[in-house]
Amino acid sequence: MKTNICYYLVAQAPFMDEPFRQNIKDVMGQPITWHRIHKDQVAFFSQDDRHTSLQTFLDTYQQEYNLKFHLLKTYRLHPLGEAASRLAIKKNPGKVDSLGDLILQLIFDGNQILSPLIKEEFSQIPRHLMQTASMLLACDLKATVASERLYVHRNTFAYRLNQFVNLTGLDIRQHDHALLFSLIEKLLIKQG
After folding, report:
1. What is the DSSP string of 147-160?
2. What pLDDT, in 10s, does the model give residues 33-73?
3. Three-class SS of residue 49?
4. CATH class for domain 5-112?
5. Where are the domains of the chain?
6. Whole-structure pTM value
7. Angle at Cα 42 formed by Cα 38 and Cα 43, nearest 5°?
8. What is the domain class of 118-191 according to CATH?
């Protein structure tokens, strides 16, 4: 199952859609779905991670428009991504970050500002689906071992994992998604 990458683009001031939409489409080399969130914030989806190309794009446009931007790579449109994007423009203007990197940076800084949003988002995921995802991580992404440890059939395990991916947008079979979920898990355990 291929998951889309959602990028939040936020600026320190309002900006016009059109020049950015076309140029980001050119950078990504594919059609993109574009969502205007606020005058200074948009989100777009891509199938591919083009971190380096997007950083070069940001560097060019920041000089041209004399305006700082930030791009946050996340896994879907959601309040957590929107809030994290707003925080990232203040913390790392001019950069491209992943949600996992930003959360890790906040943990190191002792900043818990996103914790309530993380808790709210993941409290809505059924417990058995959270257990499925957690066990997959605990078993080094070996689904057969994880299904045996949960005492469920391999097909049941796969079905639950797909439900988790559909509900969260996190395909923890991908490295960066697994890392992000691991961080989120630790924050949820810390919060109780």
Report:
1. HHHTT--HHHHHHH
2. 889 999 999 999 888 778 788 888 888 888 888 889 999 99
3. coil
4. alpha beta
5. 5-112, 118-191
6. 0.85
7. 135
8. mainly alpha
